[in-house]
């Protein structure tokens, strides 16, 4: 072992590759921590600004409908304790939303403004380092393990001097693996320490990373042990395998998925709900109130309305609009889930997709997490809506005192997030 | 000397024909380029059709609206869709990252929503299978695998000294080797040109010129790789060393650098979240007053001025509906605030792009990406162009409705509109007005504007080419000694 250690110290290229990996994964963790800190700060400022704005609007209110119309409520999706390692889909999915008592379908698809050119390049996060760069480092470290000895004529000497051929390679491979492992796990655990990541999550992430390392080491060694190949051929073939598994399969898979699962487009859902809400203005009020009272019998004894505008009718057609758009909205969601399921199938043939998925799942930055947030927002919206229904449908006279009594919980409380 | 260059290139090509790896690389390269052209063409034309259909549907819905109070139409709004440029088949650029549709309504500027990347999920981040991806990322790798041993092989076989002994200049030798590799690069470029020529067939915005500049850029870019590959092969002692170095260069410049550039840019130029901006907009608009309420304090001056201008005592005496007038002036003021924020955001995004593009001096891929997207009409500036065009359309649409409110009813009719059904009917405007609204048509930036956006990156590519030429002549000199 001592001898192997000295050997490794002498092969500068391998050491250089490991140092490069350490630097790159360190930078990726640093950027990730910075991103998470920035996001937390934005959320904090958002909550404060939102409360301020809502308080001001309340002072301006003079009727129930208007008060509800102007009262936005903050909702947010705080980064998890592993988000720093896999930012995943967070940039394209909304992390903060302001919700009010109007139709939820008209509000829930707003996204944050990202700079599209920066998003296109892809994130430089830890998951990227593991999915793309780690295999290349593995190739670099192992491709000429056998061939270089053969090409320098030492192979026969080595196999004669060792009792069996296995005992020469195992320590050499193990030592290199340990070096690589340190280069990727040390920054990850440092990040975990800073963020106070749950131990089990950090362990799972480390395990996934080790699995990725194991798969690639096995692949590269299987090629490198082919005695007939020159080291250049081994390198070319290994990189070829990397291109296929990391670039070609995911890209081809993307093209396939987009064609195979067409489903409804988000823009169409938006159109349906918009039409439903707007058509109501031109329809007799009964066309709105009948389906509304059918689904909300507790308000069906509310005072009948004249032809004139009435807020309770306004909020009823918002509700009915949501009900009309519910099916397309569900279909839209199912389309995304179906695509995600196919992506899971592709992960079986592309380690890059697999590790990305695994880390995003642990970091809660995947589709499931964004849909969970969407559900929480929908649940919260329902609470907001219902808070105003009693005063609207019982036609309680408006007063600022009564308005102050309308209790709408904080989003974190409503969604059961606990305080953070 | 020219004939010697030709001989050496021919010799290299013959060597490839014998070697299995070079053959398979060639086949893969051609196959991938053709596939990419076909897949990308199918994908982009499908997207274009979808959006055209959605736009037509949305236009039809707007035109089919019944007689209405004009302010209802202001809130009813309209959806417009972004059309893709014909060269998106070659480089789809940011197309999948930005929203495809935008909802236009009064008092607000909405963001473009429903980006394709969100609907596709995780795989969208792995890139698109387009000719641009093949040429920017895969072609250099395949050229590397073909060319890494072009000179070092001669060294290892000791044939190099023979060649030099026979009086072949090292410059000639390296040019010959580059020429052979360069032909392969040309082959990879061919599908792009053919596809581009087809899609720019009926062309009124100078896309064909852009295509030519683009092809030239790719030629320059691939030449840089060819020259670097041959130089490295000449400079390093063994083929194994030159392969390691070239693969390292490829990873750093094509895989790592674009992401580093993007991460650097978003850290260097911080941007507030959309929601924070919206809150700030709301705060700013609060000062402009609520244009639904003619009694709002913000409009006291406007009232005095208007009354004085028309020499009347009360707003009822004005020759138009004062409520519509307030809506008109209110929208004007709101839009000014909104545009100010929108311009701020666009300027910040461009600044981020500049920060990211500054890495093009470290990696030719960063330069190539920027150059290619800009000419394809799928870059940040094209998205901004769409946002500006849709904003102009929104403003004109809303003000048309506000003017109808001003002119087609009296103030007392307007104020009484919620009192009864009949009163409501009196304030409804004929639906022919919606049918007369011009439809939204997005004219892309023209060739000159695209070229302006691309020129900086094109210039950097030129610098890379000159540097690569210098590297080649240096390695020729080094080889001689």
Question: How would you describe this structure in keywords?
Answer:
A: 420 residues; mainly alpha; 17 helices; 2 strands; 72% helix; B: 481 residues; four-stranded antiparallel β-sheet; 19 helices; 71% helix
Main-sheet strand order of chain A equals 1-2
How far is the N terminus from the C terminus of chain A? Answer: 49 Å
Tell me the number of helical segments of chain B per DSSP (H or I, 4 or more residues long). 19
Structural class of chain A: mainly alpha
Low-confidence stretches of chain A: none
- Calculate the mean pLDDT score of chain B and round it: 88
Helicity range of chain B: over 70%
Main pleated-sheet profile of chain B: 4 strands, antiparallel
Radius of gyration of chain A: 29 Å
Helicity range of the residues of chain A?
Answer: over 70%
Q: State the shape of chain B.
A: elongated
Give the overall form of chain A: elongated
Q: Largest chain-chain contact?
A: A-B, 89 and 95 residues
Uncertain stretches of 5 or more adjacent residues of chain B: none
By DSSP (H or I, 4+ residues per run), the number of helices of chain A equals 17
Beta content of chain A comes to under 5%
Domain count of chain B: the total is 1
Number of strands of chain A: 2
- Alpha-carbon distance between the termini of chain B? 20 Å
Question: Can you describe what's shown?
Answer:
The complex is a heterodimer of chains A (420) and B (481). Chain A has 17 helices and two strands. Chain A is mainly alpha-helical. In chain A, α2 (12-60) packs parallel to α8 and α13 runs antiparallel to α15. Chain A is elongated and about 100 Å long. In chain A, 45% of the residues are buried. Chain B is mainly alpha-helical and 481 residues long. In chain B, 71% of the residues lie in helices and 3% in strands. In chain B, α5 packs parallel to α9 and α11 (274-288) runs antiparallel to α13. The longest helix of chain B has 44 residues, at 20-63. The mean pLDDT of chain B is 88. Classes of the chains: A mainly alpha (420), B mainly alpha (481). The interface between A and B is large, with 89 and 95 residues.
